[in-house]
Amino acid sequence: MHVPVLLKEAIEVLNPQPGEFFIDGTLGGGGHAMEIIKRISPNGIFLGMDWDKSAIENFQQNLKPKTPKLKAIKLIQNNYADIAEILKEINKTDSLIPFKVSGLIVDLGLSSDQLENSGRGFSFLKDEILDMRFDSESKEPTATEIINSFSEKELAGIFWKYGEEGNSRRVAKEIVEKRRKNRIKTTFELVKIIENTVPRRGKIHPATKVFQALRIYINDEFGNLEKLLKSLNNILAKGGRAAIISFHSLEDRLVKNCFRDIAKRGQAEILTKKPIVPSQEEIKNNQRSRSAKLRAIKITLAYDNNSTTQKQ
Prior knowledge:
Number of strands: 9
CATH topology of the largest domain: Rossmann fold
Order of helices and strands: HEHEHEHEHHHHHHHEHEHEEE
Low-confidence stretches: 305-312
CATH superfamily of the largest domain: Vaccinia Virus protein VP39
Number of helices: 13
Largest sheet: 7 strands, mixed
Strand content: 15-25%
Structural class: alpha/beta
Mean pLDDT: 91
Oligomer: single chain
């Protein structure tokens, strides 16, 4: 069952109102989206996006029996990094969709459905083929291809930069040694290598950081986030709010610095002076929420990044 992270807190800070236009850039299991749709009904406009085709299909099925009273609803399989370009394209053919939005939410974590049901090797608790691409039809290399072809130095760099794995060199060395004998194809084969290399500390599984690093690298998650942040002023209308939920210290730093810079230019108000984190009760009920951090911002001055025109 999908459990949306920081649902109450995200809705509270975004404050969706009837008739507003909201985007969920990472639809996932649809927990945030369904609550937003309730709040913007009647006559609201909703655009839901996800890179994962199955997330779009599942949300469509869940939405049908609920028949929300919206002016317009669109579901698109695409990368949240391209929201600004997608809005421009939609505006060319659909007069109901405004040029900018009232609210945006992006949850950078994996949904429970992706971990448990994708069959693409996101979870180290399931024995699956090592794929890890959000878009299974993408031509980007899979985790299997990376694990079996990248050099020891390249692998160690990925594990350290994207997973902050302190044993990155040891893990990379062990992977290279093992693949000389047999190609590493499944999650459990990789997990076994990691468990024999990384000592277990506390409740966190030794494979957590390596799996996180591979997923982030394969899907260029940091690059996508940077592109989205640079285009925020072309997405949000004056008074528009954005909430971003991150699960990695570097992601959170990117969001923090971007929000601070926009606020320094006098274009926005930061709604979260410090990141909002899950309560102990939420962490108890959903362990995956433990590293989540939510930051939010409100645009106070409309601004087009492609020009010098500002609108009060």
